[in-house]
Design brief:
Strand content: under 5%
Radius of gyration: 17 Å
Largest sheet: none
Distance between the termini: 26 Å
Number of helices: 5
Order of helices and strands: HHHHH
Shape: elongated
Helix content: over 70%
Number of strands: 0
């Protein structure tokens, strides 16, 4: 059973890898020539953000099972929970900003939200980098 949860955990982590690329992809939205192209690209990023949120839930639940089976230091799992919840919060706020930007199909409302989208995507990328670092080195806190 542990192997199944480990597989789900790694699968969720791989799907959340999108958050490492998101700051670079969000920066490309403004470089697109017109509003409809920006709208299309941002709608893809919005869908990928939703998939990342689903992957976060999968990783959170499977990680909870794996932590229960392993002997990890309390500070490690507290940091892991806080960082994963922070990613969930930031990606949720990011999704809201993307939804507002996508409210007009012509792409005219993207310009008002793109600064916040770029900032939040950078924060999500940094948080995910910290999660990956924490997961690779759990014994630093032992």
């Amino acid at each position: 059973m542990s192997q199944v949860f480990l597989y789900l955990h790694v699968l969720g982590a791989a799907l959340m890898g999108f958050y490492l690329a998101l700051p670079f992809l969000a920066a490309r939205v403004e470089a697109l020539p017109n509003g409809s192209a920006q709208h299309g690209f941002l709608s893809v990023l919005f869908s990928l953000n939703r998939a990342g949120q689903l992957a976060l839930i999968i990783a959170f639940i499977s990680g909870g099972y794996l932590v229960g089976k392993g002997g990890y230091p309390a500070i490690w799992w507290i940091l892991a929970i806080v960082l994963l919840l922070a990613i969930g919060a930031v990606s949720g706020i990011l999704g809201g900003k993307m939804r507002k930007a996508l409210s007009d199909a012509s792409g005219s409302s993207i310009k008002a939200q793109i600064g916040a989208i770029r900032t939040l995507s950078s924060v999500a990328g940094i948080l995910y980098f910290l999660v990956i670092t924490l997961m690779l080195f759990p014994n630093v806190f032992a």
